[in-house]
From TrEMBL:
InterPro entries: NAD(P)-bd_dom_sf (IPR036291), SDR_fam (IPR002347). GO terms for molecular function: oxidoreductase activity, acting on the CH-OH group of donors, NAD or NADP as acceptor. Belongs to the short-chain dehydrogenases/reductases (SDR) family. This is 2-deoxy-D-gluconate 3-dehydrogenase. PANTHER family: SHORT-CHAIN DEHYDROGENASES/REDUCTASES FAMILY MEMBER (PTHR42760). It comes from Knoellia flava.
Length: 243
């Protein structure tokens, strides 16, 4: 039996490394992306890398857009413009380029994309604003591709919670934290998405450490509204003309 093919960006350490290993243990042929493999913001490098993957495997069954960075935890007025924009480029241009390049080679009907996003996309906080904005933009890409009858592919937003990684340990907001999301809680959801168990959640956000495969299946069975777990405008009430 031919192994399914998974591409995981940012797979040299942290959550990406754990997900790549979990997929390998589940029988996937995993292509691990890193800055030494292909810088995700470099179009030529991304196209060459994906081209090499397709030349060897013929297709991609699963893309996990995990590569990402965070900017300094300061208010926008104190941010460094170069660092701010570099964060947006890595977290938005990166998954855009990789997704755009992979899409023509994604297995029709069964190929899936998982975007690692964050609950920060849904909060108003004047700190690490490039990261927050970039994750909201990534959520919009997920919905544009994966939601509705005209969807392009099966695409999921996965907020991993707070996994103990080099990045989270460096953040002031997590100083003194004693409770962490288990990496296995993240990989369980990715494996379920890859199997097709959670296809009803295409275009929507799920959160490791809060959601489980069982709870998501139960909720999907009960029915999902058009706006459930999506990023969008909240109307002031039924009389709001923008509602």
């Amino acid at each position: 039996m031919i192994a399914p093919v998974a591409v995981v960006t940012g797979a040299s350490r942290g959550i990406g490394a754990h997900l790549a290993t979990a997929l390998e243990n589940d029988g996937y042929a995993v292509e691990r992306g890193s800055r030494s493999t292909a810088e995700v913001t470099d179009r030529a490098a991304v196209e060459a890398w994906v081209g090499d993957v397709v030349a060897r495997h013929g297709r991609v069954d699963l893309l996990v857009n995990n590569a990402g960075v965070i900017d300094a935890e300061v208010p926008l007025g104190e941010s460094d413009p170069d660092e701010w924009w570099s964060t947006v480029e890595t977290n938005v241009r990166g998954p855009y380029l990789v997704t755009r390049t992979v899409l023509p080679h994604l297995t029709p009907g069964t190929g899936r994309i998982v975007n690692l996003t964050s609950g920060a996309a849904y909060r108003n906080a004047d700190s690490a604003t490039a990261y927050n904005l970039s994750k909201a933009a990534l959520s919009r890409i997920t919905a544009q591709l994966g939601l509705g009858p005209q969807r392009t592919a099966l695409v999921f937003d996965l907020a991993p919670g707070v996994v103990r990684t080099d990045m989270t340990l460096s953040m002031r907001m997590h100083e003194g934290r004693t409770e962490w999301t288990s990496p296995d809680e993240v990989s369980d959801l990715v494996l379920a998405m890859a199997r097709g168990d959670l296809d009803a959640w295409s275009g929507r956000m799920v959160r490791a450490g809060v959601d489980t495969v069982a709870s998501l299946l139960a909720r999907a069975e009960a029915g999902l509204g058009e706006r459930d777990r999506t990023l969008g405008l909240v109307p002031w009430g039924p009389d709001d003309p923008l509602g």
